[in-house]
Amino acid sequence: MLSTELADLKAYMADNPGAVVEDVARERKVTPRAVIEALPPSMVRMGGGEHFAAAMQDISEWGEVTLIVHTDDAIFEFTGSIPAGEVGRGYFNLMQPKGLHGHLRHERCAGIAFVERPFMGKVSAFVAFVNADGGIMFKVFVGRDETRALRADQLARFRQLADRIAPAF
After folding, report:
1. Which residue among 21, 34, 140, 143 is the one 20 to 30 A from 67 at the CA level?
2. CA 164 to CA 146: how far, in whole Å?
């Protein structure tokens, strides 16, 4: 990306921090990772993908969250607890027979972004697992309480995980 394009993207994200990452990426012909990294530094921290299993194990202890997979063709949302998992046979396997389960190609994770930003008039916080191509594998959003505020316990866990995986400089 040219420095002028990067500067334009950073300016756009500073003015529109709640823009849908995937939409901005498609419109500007950049990766979703580039869009996340263009957010103001106070809104994002990026850690290494080698922390995938540790991050997923921690998230499995948060309680009800929303996991989103956003593709060009669909947006899948799962609200519930993320099951614990383990690495085996080349995958990170979510160990649950019903509900959310499956096999994740953890070795394709090249970064883990911790994003706190405004979205649709409210503060949001999510962990984005970014693949080797700069795409987003999936996002896990901090849950909300009965008043639609971010759950304080989960936000604390989110920030603690960010401090371990993507310490601020």
Report:
1. 34
2. 29
Distance from C-alpha of 109 to C-alpha of 55, rounded to nearest angstrom: 12
Structure tokens at 147: 């008043």
pLDDT tens across 30-77, in order?
999 999 999 999 999 999 999 999 999 999 999 999 999 999 899 999
Give the residue carrying structure tokens 């090249």.
110
Find, among 122, 113, 117, 116, the residue nearest to 145 by Cα. Answer: 122
